[in-house]
Amino acid sequence: MTGLGKPVTQRQLRVGEMIKQALGMLFIRDEAKLPLSTREITVTEVRMSPDLKTAKIFVMPLGGREADDIVAKLKEFSFVIRKVLSKKIIIKFLPKLYFVKDDSF
Predict the structure, then answer these.
(1) Strands 41-48 and 54-61
(2) 3-class DSSP state for residue 97?
(3) Residues 74, 61: contact at Cβ < 8 Å?
(4) DSSP bridge partners of 47
(5) Is beta strand 96-101 parallel, antiparallel or unpaired with respect to 54-61?
(6) Which residues lie below 8 Å from residue 58, measured CB to CB, with a gap of 6+?
(7) pLDDT at 101
(8) How far apart are the first and last CA of the chain?
């Protein structure tokens, strides 16, 4: 693994999975009250920074319809999602959320 950077730690994976599950339930229940239908959004992966201060969240709407518009709306309302998420998970510092369209499909 030379030249690829530091390997991902067990803690990064655990916190990323916790945020992924919490966001999935938040989107299914539409608890953030966003001006878009979050029930159709799939959180495919969450990558945490080594210091756990930022989270890159890969999302994809069902069928890939209007993916760029939905990701733009999620970026715009990330502070609202972060506020609701803070009540769902217990962590010392809640990371900043960066939403990215998942192109791996």
Answers:
(1) antiparallel
(2) strand
(3) no
(4) 56
(5) parallel
(6) 43, 44, 45, 46, 47, 100, 101, 102, 104
(7) 92
(8) 25
pTM beyond 0.85: the answer is yes
Structure tokens at 100: 């990215």
pLDDT tens for the 105 residues of the chain, in order:
455 778 889 999 999 999 999 999 998 898 888 888 888 889 999 999 999 999 999 999 888 788 889 899 999 989 989 999 999 898 888 999 999 998 886
DSSP-derived 3-state class of residue 31: coil
**Residues 93, 53: contact at Cβ < 8 Å?**
yes
Question: Token digits for 76?
Answer: 């715009």
Cα dist from 3 to 6, 7, 8, 30, 47, whole Å: 9, 11, 14, 42, 19
Distance CA 91, CA 1 (A): 31
Q: How far apart are CA 45 and CA 57, in angstroms?
A: 6
Q: What's the sign of the alpha-carbon dihedral 73, 62, 42, 83?
A: positive
